[in-house]
Each structure stands twice: as structure tokens, then as C-alpha cells.
């Protein structure tokens, strides 16, 4: 299947990045039936796929090929045809970048469309960790130099997946403010459009660093998301717990109590209720607070946990999810939520399954099976 997806305005689009290409599923707002199309760029490791409604529905792909290297590709016809950015993200090879890891970008991890008032702006997070920006709809890219020149950069350490900038969170009200998440350097914030950055990790644990378990920087965030309905509120699933901040990252509160593990990769946010979020804990069987050795659903039971109180308490959601011998792993881009009422929740696994709920997690169904290992899921409303 390689034909373009067919969608009417208002339909839902499920964008799936896998280790062997990209797939698109589309359905109407009942969310009962889905049509699969793809694979697009079969054989290519697609780290992330995102729909940009500002550009009339352009799809951007973070494509990482073992033969052609990392490329930003885009489609204006739901996968029918694809183009490449004329100038791909790459480090500028200048003497003042001596602290950089070299001029070569190894992988593109995440693409983030800019704000509604910035129709041509996009951001890309890459490995080795750096932030790139496009102001012409993805045609060309340049590095945000302020982050690359940060004085702590030479001491950033790679996580298990490498030194990657995987999360980009925009303040929707202040165009000068944004956050990025780097594994394993922590969360950084700029208040001046990227000229200057400061670590914002106060209260976040780094249990893998017993000499300094609460450092200024050096934590390992796995996914960082802003709650767009409430300025200053962000959540993160970290290597060492789940956290929230209500003051733009100045201080983080540990909200892990009630979960079977501190470790996990994904976090999903309700589109309207700032106190509702979803996580999927992993590695309970490891028996330590550090986590990371096993990387599958805690206890071999696939449970999504929901909090409706901003993390004060948690409830396991299991109806329709496998509860025995479920050695399921979900990567950091593997959870998404839609904007419908009730909100839908979507989870893609490295087993090639997509589970989804049409009622905010109360009941779960299988949307697709037997896909290649899934790197990312995103959901959007077609324009």
C-alpha cells in the first residue's frame, strides 16, 4: 500500500513513524473505523511524523536512513508525493563551534511546528543535541546558536539512545519563550527567542548520579509537554519519575507517588483539562528506583495510568489492554491525544500495535497490528 491517504476536512489522521517507514491511518470523528495507507519511504527509520495545519496540511517527516542519512521530508498530499528540504539541518562548521561534537547531524528526532502567528516557522531537535529552526516552511534550516554555545555543553552526557534533543515545547502566549528536553542533559528554557538558555531542573532527581542526585543540570527527561490550556504548566516523564511545574520550569514537583515505577517514556495530556494526564510506567520488575534495565510494561502488564488531579493520585486503565505476559515497550513519541470530546488517547508499541481509547482511557481497542516497530504516533484533524 503506497497510495496517498484520503481524508475529508474534519477527519482524524493518525501519523505513525516506524523503523521501516511511515504510515497514515484516517477515520471520521466517530473513531470507529480506520483506513491504513503506506508505507511511505519503506525501509527508512522515521523517528517522528507531524501534521502542520498552518501550511494547509503539510506532513513533515524526521527521516533517518542508513544510506542517505538524516533528512527532513514533507508531503502536501497526505503521502502521495514527498519532497526534501533543500538544505538539511547540519552543524555550521565554524571555529567558535569547537565545543560541538562535529559538523554532522546523526539523527533528526523531533519536528515541532511554530505558533499560529508564525506560519513559516518550524523547529527540529537532533542528535548530537542541538536545536534547528526554519522560517520558510522547512525549505532551509539554521542552528539556534545560543543553545549550541551553552557553557555546559561539553559536559552533556548521552542517554541510552544517544545525546538527543527530543522535546520542544513552545509557550503559546510568549513568542520569546520555549523549552527543550535533552537526554541526558535536562530541560533548558529560553526567554529571549533562543539567544540565551538556562537549565530549569530544580526538584528533578538524577538517581543515576549518586554524587549529586539533584543537580542543576544532567537529568534525563524522556518526554516534555506543555499544557497549552494553562500558561506555565508543563509535565515530564523522566528517567527518574513523573514531574509537573506550574511556574514555567522554575520548580518541578515530583508526582510519581502511586505509580508502580519511576521509569517510563511517554506522557499524554488532555486537550482541555490541565489536571488530566496519562503515563505508562515501565521496568517495575527491575526492583530499583533508577530503572532502564528491562524496558517493558511494569510487571508484564500493559497499564496506562491516568490522573485527573494533576498527579496527586493515579488510576490504572486496563479494560481492553493485555494484562498477562505483556512485555510491551513504548518509545518516547509513542503516545498522543486528540482534541475531541471525550478525548482520545493513542499508544503505539515497538511490537507494532496501536491501542487507542475513545473515552479518555476507560476502554481500549486495537487500531492496528503487525506494523514495524513504532517510533512515534501523532493525531491531527484534517483541514
Give a concise summary.
This protein is mainly β. The chain has 1 helix and 28 strands.
Task: Please provide a written account of the structure.
The chain is mainly β and about 375 residues long. The chain has one domain (about 10-380): 7 Propeller (Methylamine Dehydrogenase, Chain H). The chain is built from one helix and 28 strands. The chain has one helix at about 145-150; strands at about 10-20, 20-25, 35-40, 45-50, 60-65, 70-75, 85, 105-115, 120-125, 130-135, 140-145, 165-170, 180-185, 185-190, 200, 220-225, 235-240, 240-245, 255, 265-270, 275-280, 305, 315, 335, 345-350, 355, 365-370, 375-380. The strands form seven sheets. The protein has a four-stranded antiparallel beta sheet, with no helix packed on it. It is globular. The model is unreliable at about 95-100 (pLDDT under 50).
Main sheet?
4 strands, antiparallel
Query: Architecture in CATH?
Result: 7 Propeller
CATH superfamily: YVTN repeat-like/Quinoprotein amine dehydrogenase
Order of helices and strands: EEEEEEEEEEEHEEEEEEEEEEEEEEEEE
**CATH T-level topology:** Methylamine Dehydrogenase, Chain H
Q: Low-confidence stretches at least 5 residues in length (pLDDT < 50)?
A: 93-98
Helix content class: under 10%
List keywords for this structure.
single chain; 383 residues; mainly beta; Methylamine Dehydrogenase, Chain H; four-stranded antiparallel beta sheet; globular
Amino acid at each position: 500500500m503506497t497510495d496517498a491517504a484520503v481524508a475529508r476536512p474534519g477527519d482524524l489522521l493518525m501519523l505513525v513513524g516506524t523503523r521501516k517507514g511511515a504510515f497514515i491511518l484516517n477515520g471520521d470523528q466517530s473513531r470507529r473505523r480506520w483506513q491504513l495507507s503506506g508505507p511511505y519511504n519503506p525501509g527508512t527509520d522515521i523517528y517522528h511524523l507531524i501534521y502542520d495545519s498552518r501550511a494547509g496540511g503539510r506532513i513533515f517527516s524526521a527521516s533517518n536512513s542508513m544510506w542517505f542519512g538524516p533528512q527532513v521530508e514533507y508531503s502536501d498530499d497526505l503521502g502521495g508525493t514527498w519532497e526534501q528540504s533543500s538544505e538539511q539541518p547540519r552543524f555550521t562548521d565554524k571555529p567558535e563551534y569547537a565545543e560541538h561534537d562535529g559538523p554532522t547531524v546523526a539523527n533528526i528526532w523531533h519536528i515541532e511546528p511554530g505558533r499560529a502567528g508564525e506560519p513559516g516557522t518550524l523547529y527540529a531537535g537532533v542528535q548530537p543535541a542541538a536545536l534547528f529552526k526554519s522560517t520558510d516552511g522547512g525549505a532551509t534550516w539554521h542552528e539556534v546558536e545560543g543553545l549550541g554555545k551553552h557553557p555546559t555543553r561539553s559536559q552533556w552526557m548521552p542517554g541510552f539512545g544517544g545525546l538527543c534533543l527530543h522535546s520542544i515545547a513552545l509557550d503559546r502566549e510568549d513568542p520569546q519563550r520555549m523549552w527543550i528536553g535533552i537526554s541526558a542533559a535536562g530541560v533548558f528554557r529560553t526567554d529571549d527567542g533562543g539567544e540565551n538558555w538556562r537549565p530549569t531542573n530544580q526538584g528533578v532527581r538524577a538517581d543515576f548520579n549518586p554524587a549529586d542526585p539533584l543537580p542543576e543540570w544532567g537529568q534525563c527527561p524522556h518526554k516534555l509537554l506543555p499544557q497549552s490550556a494553562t500558561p506555565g504548566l508543563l509535565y515530564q516523564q523522566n528517567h527518574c519519575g513523573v514531574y509537573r511545574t506550574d511556574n514555567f520550569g522554575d520548580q518541578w514537583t515530583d508526582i510519581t507517588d502511586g505509580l508502580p515505577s519511576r521509569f517510563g517514556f511517554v506522557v499524554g495530556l488532555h486537550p482541555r483539562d490541565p489536571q488530566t494526564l496519562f503515563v505508562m510506567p515501565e521496568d517495575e520488575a527491575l526492583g530499583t528506583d533508577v530503572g532502564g534495565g528491562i524496558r517493558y510494561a511494569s510487571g508484564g502488564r500493559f497499564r496506562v495510568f491516568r490522573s485527573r488531579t494533576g498527579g496527586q493520585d493515579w488510576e490504572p486503565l486496563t479494560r481492553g489492554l493485555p494484562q498477562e505476559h505483556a512485555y510491551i515497550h513504548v518509545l518516547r513519541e509513542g503516545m498522543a491525544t486528540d482534541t475531541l470530546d471525550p478525548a482520545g488517547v493513542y499508544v503505539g508499541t515497538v511490537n507494532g500495535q496501536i491501542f487507542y481509547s475513545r473515552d479518555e482511557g476507560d476502554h481500549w481497542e486495537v487500531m492496528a497490528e503487525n506494523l514495524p516497530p513504532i517510533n512515534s504516533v501523532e493525531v491531527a484533524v484534517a483541514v
